[in-house]
Amino acid sequence: MTELLIEFFSEEIPARMQARAADDLKRLVTDKLAANGLTFAKAEAHSTPRRLALVVDGLPERTADVREEKKGPRVGSPEQAVAGFLKSAGLDSLDQCEQRDTGKGVFYFAVTEKKGRETAEVLAEIIPAAMAELPWPKSMRWGTGTVRWVRPLHSIIALFGGRVLDGGYDIGGTQGRIAFGNGTRGHRFLAPDAFTVESFADYKEKLRAAKVVLDREERKAKIKADAEALAKAQGLTLSPDDALLEEVAGLVEWPVVLMGSIDESFMDVPSEVLITSMRTHQKYFAVLDAEGRMAPRFIVVANTETLDGGKAVVAGNERVLRARLSDAKFFWDQDRKTKLEARVPALEKITFHAKLGTVAEKVTRVQLLAAEIARAIGADSDAASRAALLCKADLVTEVVGEFPEVQGIMGRYYALGQGESADVANAIADHYKPLGPSDSCPTAPVSVSVALADKIDTLVGFFAIDEKPTGSKDPYALRRAALGVIRLVLENGLRVKLSEVFGEAKTQYGRFVADALTSRLEGRGTPANYSGIEADLMSFFADRLKVVLREQGVRHDLVDAVFALGGEDDLVRLLARVKALQAFVGSDEGANLAAAYKRASNIVRIEEKKDGASFDQPVDADRLAQDEEKALFAALNEASATAKPLLDAEDFTGTMAALAKLRGPVDAFFDKVTVNAEDKDLRANRLRLLTQIRTTLNAVADFSKIEG
Question: Is the pLDDT of residue 516 over 60?
Fold first, then answer.
């Protein structure tokens, strides 16, 4: 078994593209190996700023011989069928076919034998093909070349068993072909000379000697460990930033971690602004003091070693950072001269969506909706209204214009500095939350009210203009908004009727949205009535809720079973019902009853179709002939009477326990009673009894939706 080593050496590959490109290279090559019948033990891809590498271990020296058989038409078939078979098999005449008796007649068989090929010959074809298919997000041509690659390509290592493969990659124009070889270069500044390699182990060892750490995860680990050690030496801790660590690992081949200082004059600027400026523009890590506040230090990762131990590098980065932070401080100082409320009119110049009006109109709607939600959940409606009025005002500040990532956060700082209450200021900062599954969820009632209002206004608006998510496309992040609403409701235990909140949001659109939308959706002069929005949104929320509950181990069909009842828009109550239902169907009694439900439903459905009649009339107690059907009738009446007050009290566990008592009578009925009796009236009465089983169980969930 033999090793394949590939390296594509080029100018610097953008950091965001490297890991994906390495994965794509591995996928393309290994797929093509499999398609050519080549097995291997393992494949491992690597990336650095200047190279993509792949090593495949355990390849055979040649492909196996292959014998293929293809069954054709029956002997004596029409000429057209025979000719089609010969063409598909790549044969010239029937003399090249075998005739075999299959037991069902004599058929033609085409038998072809393909001799194995040298693996090196196959690899010489696979590598250029994989290179041509590598899906770079952006690529370029250079010189006179016509082929596109992410950056100018300098050399290609292609070794199989230590031998250079014959072949190369044609980049077109007068530049011709880059031939496969065994040579590469090390670090651009520290070890730029060329060297040759014989194997992956030799390659990796010589790269390290040439100041290149090939393994991306190793570079990340070194950066993190060295940064933490530098911070610890100063009594500080590294501020965690996995995304920045991932990016910086793609910027350096030989990471050298250094620490610099931030002028104290900048430390009165909010730390979020400082950190955003450093990470966005300079790729610096922040460090924290013992109290968790940002310290006047930063971590920079250089891609080179210097004779002075990095002093000049640090000084240069401190100088650049001063210029960056001077801009941020200037914006911060200027922004505080204007109150947030005075900025609200400027939101009229920002379009929320061409069909949904301006951000100023959205603020007006959110303001009224937040107050309604606050009253419903027992929050301060005046504070919620005030926070909603100011929540988007920081969009027209200089700091947010420069650093959009801190919108909301800056609004909080400005609000506190201008005398707004803590509840209002925190609601401004939190109204975008939660932004994703790892983001914290607001818990303060005012913050929750504004966050819900903002998301629901967005959802109702985009559903009104039929801009719903489709497939993998969700340009307005409506799935994220819905998941945010679900988290806000469930994590805070809010007893709100979503359909009523959707209706209120819809009403606000009818009152305040631009005339163009009003006329398009409802007709001028008529009340807001965008029919179907609430139902569409509840269906959309059902799908999103399945995602949330799946992560908690809840089956999606149980969510469907509860939603199918209709009218359930209280997510807290719905979740309690679903979890009680899951416990019920997970028990022996519940599983048996679910099976009995399906059996009863199937019998009734078949008979209804046969007779063209319905059996949902009341059971005639006087026509119950056998003890088992009398017992089932009594048990069903008792279960219904017991379950109703329990359902009304939202004691879903108790409701399921009441239904569980039906198991014995139901089993006895199916064991002893013949439903399709000869007496027509007796048969109809028994079918009504089966219908009552279905009706009783459907009071808590639509059992027809339950799978298995």
Answer: no
